[in-house]
Amino acid sequence: xDLRATRAEINISQFKKNLTVFKNTIGKDKQLCLAVKGNxxxxxxxxxxxxxxxxxxxxxxxxxxxxxSIREEGITLPIFVLSSHLEKEISILCRYHLxxxxxxxxxxxxxxxxxxxxxxxxxxxxxxxxxxxxxxxMPTEALALAQKINSYPNLSLExxxxxxxxxxxxxxxxxxxxxxxxxxxxxxxxxxxxxxSIHAANSAGVLSSSESHFTLVRVGIGAYGYGDHPDLKPVxxxxxxxxxxxxxxxxxxxxxxxxxxxxxxxxxxxxxxGYADGYFRALSNKxxxxxxxxxxxxxxxICMDQIVVALPIDGSYLEKDVYLYGDRPDLNAETLAEWxxxxxxxxxxxxxxxxxxxxx
Length: 360
Ligand SMILES: *Cc1c(COP(=O)(O)O)cnc(C)c1O
Description:
There is one protein chain. This protein is an alpha/beta fold. It has eleven helices and 19 strands. It is elongated and about 80 Å long. The two termini are about 15 Å apart. The structure holds pyridoxal-5'-phosphate. Pyridoxal-5'-phosphate binds near residues 202, 204, 218 and 222.
């Protein structure tokens, strides 16, 4: 039972529509991988993994622990672990049938040891750094590493992948990465190394160029509703209620540091949401909230657990619904991201554990 005023409403049918947009974009013969890292971008790791079943071919997490959480719920989809992990996590990785992205050769003995211990063939995906400058083996070292992987009896090179640095900002650079990636694929082929799974694209990559689709795409933000396609709509709406209304006289300050001073007698409303919920302090004196379809400004500093908004003098607003952001084109995570100087990813991923998620 959740009686808290502040809650995140999560629209599962819209989530499924968003996934369908990606399925239709890539076509039937390509695979769809859904990124559920970061608590499924704030939407809830277990719930979103559960609802994605039947619509996606693979789930992707950042950490081994996230993968274990999904497995323990009985989900049997393949799970990629996108980020690097510690050597001591390899036994768990094998035991839970998680698939690592490999950027170096230092753990191959350990992968072999544990794969053999569990009498399994461990699929590995070799990640190549074609320009992201983060994870991935450098292109000149990719072939040697692939050959080394293939020399272990219990390891199988199932995939070859890379990651785009500028899929939503610089298509020329993305194109360069694709060209380099194709050269590596070609080099592998010439040495008779043909991993069945080849992938590069994130959401923006999928939508901007079909050249980037290869055999599988990895989508995150687009599935949650943010991306350049008319049918993608935000899945999560963050809402709360007015829990106190009162009138302050002209000259009275509002919130920590007194950064907002009432220019005239003003009715203020208190909403129980703050940076501990993931409503960023950087939104202080910048954000707006919506009540009955009308925007009202946030006054003064955002606190840990509360914000103050300006209300009309007339009428009662006590316990009225306050829409903080969500599926509206004029008030979504991108709107907040602009106010807070960040990106939609960070806004939605920040919604904290104490905010109840309501799935419908
Ligand atoms: C998070 C992630 C994705 C998904 O990116 P979006 O931009 O959210 O679609 C794809 N690939 C890798 C390696 C990632 O870490």
